[in-house]
Amino acid sequence: MKLGILKETESSEKRVSISPKIAKQLIENGFEVLVEDDAGSSSKFKNAYYEKAGAIIEKRGAVYKNSDVLIKINPFDQDGLKLVDKHHILICQLFHKSHPGIVKQIAEIGATVFSMDALPRISRAQDMDVLSSQSNLAGYKAVIKGAYEMTKIFPLMMTAAGTITPSRVLIYGVGVAGLQAIATAKRLGAIVEATDIRMETKEQAESLGAKFISVDSNDDASENGYAKAASEDYARRQKEAVNESLYKADLVITTAMVPGRKSPVLITEEQVLEMKNGAVIIDLAAAQGGNCELSKMNKPVVKNGVKIIGTTIAPESVSTNASDLYAKNMYNFIMLLTENNEFKFDLEDEITDETLIVKDGVIRKT
Catalytic residues, which ones? Predict the structure, then answer.
């Protein structure tokens, strides 16, 4: 079976789906690996590294033409879909609920596609969970980015010239990214507070040293391990509970996303106007609309002295580590789904069933 590793086409994307180390492991397991020219260059993986691992470097068109399986991180774009044939098996983060048009196009071609973001939240799938591996790095990087943008330091510091009080950090969303952000901010010496609609995250946040801001709710706030959209009443009461901390915060990190839906607005323009002059918001949900009403994807916004940086949960700025982890997730996924270098298509297996979005042109998941 020939695996084609494609170069990501988004201008801000620095990652690659398979690293040279994982390419070598796949080849040792009997796969042939074709890598698009310079696919790993932004992650600091030279073509020579892949060739040393036993992979073949090809131009883009040749990778599409000569591969049985096409692997990338982000959804296939229109130019890429023009090169897809009905014999192809595609693997990427399709986010099929948000991209019904792409799903329809793949079906019309007659191809097959697996979506990595659709993995079920079960223990057996943990070593394939690209959302978790990437979010972990994103939470860390969000704090580092915030530290760079702030005009204050994080820790308490006692000097001959006086005492510097610690910065205050507020984190919305205590998932993988939020937990790593809490841990990183605490290690740097900040006072950390966190909030989440899922009350089961309270103990996790507190175990890392954060004060958890809770809001009573009778609703089931989680679904398959992910947060559900909050009711209007809950959203109102959460704002009231969090406002005091928000207005004192030096750094705010938002990570709240609901799969297949626009990100919930947690910080309105009105709230931003009440925040401290010089405060920084890092909005990791900007790609899905943003948790802050004023967020613009990859375009810093300054409002009333507050700097709002809209970015994504995908940590392109640490692309070497991110690619290493994504590639390992992908390796585990491929090894589960194949036997003797052929896909098993075992629909009795929950992982296969949930991630197989289109099979031979037939849409299975919408």
Answer: 121, 126, 129, 132, 226
